Amino acid sequence: MLEIENLHVSYGAIKALHGVSLKVPQGGIVTLIGANGAGKSTTLRALSGLVKPASGSIRYDGREISKLPPERIVAGGLCHVPEGRMVFANLTVHENLKMGAYLQRDRKWIAEQTEYVFGLFPRLKERENQSAGTLSGGEQQMLAIGRALLSRPKFLMLDEPSLGIAPLLVKTIFERIVEINREQGLTILLVEQNANLALDISSYAYVLETGKILIEGPSALVKADPQVQAAYLGA
Ligand SMILES: Nc1ncnc2c1ncn2[C@@H]1O[C@H](COP(=O)(O)OP(=O)(O)O)[C@@H](O)[C@H]1O
Ligand SMILES: [Mg+2]
Fold first, then answer.
1. Cβ atoms < 10 Å from Cβ of 155
2. Which atom in ligand 1 lies closest to the alpha carbon of residue 43?
3. What backbone phi and psi angles, to 5 degrees, belong to 230?
4. Residue 102 CB neighbours (<10 A)
5. Distance 82 CA to ligand 1 centre (A)
6. What is the CA(7)–ligand 1 centre distance, in A?
7. Residue 91: DSSP 8-state
8. What are phi and psi of 223, to 5 degrees?
9. How many whole angstroms separate alpha carbon 64 and alpha carbon 45?
10. Which pLDDT score is estimated for 235?
11. CB burial class (10 A; 0-12, 13-18, 19+) of residue 207?
């Protein structure tokens, strides 16, 4: 469904990605792990069209998208939940969800999908009329994911959903990511520093180090790799 080939991205003189290639099959969960500064967010920004690659290709659903503006990419069903969540703090939970659906016209679908999100994350239902700024970090992450689901995505990119969140909520959120993948038929690219959990819920993994893919393989094998264990799993 998505294929990145030999992607190079720079910020001025800083080379953030040097020749990243990766694939995400339709309906899969693939994870991209790596330390702070490895280039994970840059990879997602390039996929969303927020930064323009110096070279390389990005094919999505058979089409080259690396030169398209972000709004065209979003319209194709690629949805990016950025690092740090970025919910509208002054709007209520319900208003945030409505913002996610702003391009959707089918009111019945919006109502059903909103109920689906409340079913996934009952805490959001309980806090429906509270402003998003009053939610905990974990609840804001749930809201950011819920808002993304209301944009009717086909391909969801999650940038470090576990960052700064209480461990118990992280577990819940990861379980829901698996549910969303199964129930909504949504393809997922999960970016994480929390390698352990990300490797448990994904089928295939890439390890990014200073702008290059160092290791890749089925997640269980990557998890068993001594180099990965030493560098990312604290073994
Ligand atoms: N807006 C920016 N301007 C300049 N350098 C940046 C910018 N964003 C990221 N970088 C640099 O690009 C590299 C990769 O960053 P990033 O993609 O954010 O990594 P990660 O998400 O894996 O932590 C880092 O060296 C970082 O300092
Ligand atoms: Mg990042």
1. 21
2. 17
3. -70, -45
4. 8
5. 14
6. 15
7. S
8. -65, -30
9. 16
10. 61
11. buried
Give residues (CB < 6 A) around ligand 1. 11, 14, 16, 34, 36-42
Mutate to test the pocket of ligand 1, among 9, 10, 14 (most ligand atoms within 8 A of CB): 14
Residues of the chain predicted below pLDDT 70: 235
For the whole model, what pTM was predicted? 0.96
Token output for 145: 């994911």
Predicted pLDDT at 85: 75
Q: Are 43 and 8 in contact (CB under 8 A)?
A: no
Domains (ranges, CATH) in the chain?
2-232 (3.40.50.300)
Please name every residue paired with 168 in a beta bridge, in sequence order, or none if there are none: none
Structure confidence at residue 211 (pLDDT): 97
Nearest Cα neighbor of 220 from 211, 208, 229, 212 is 229
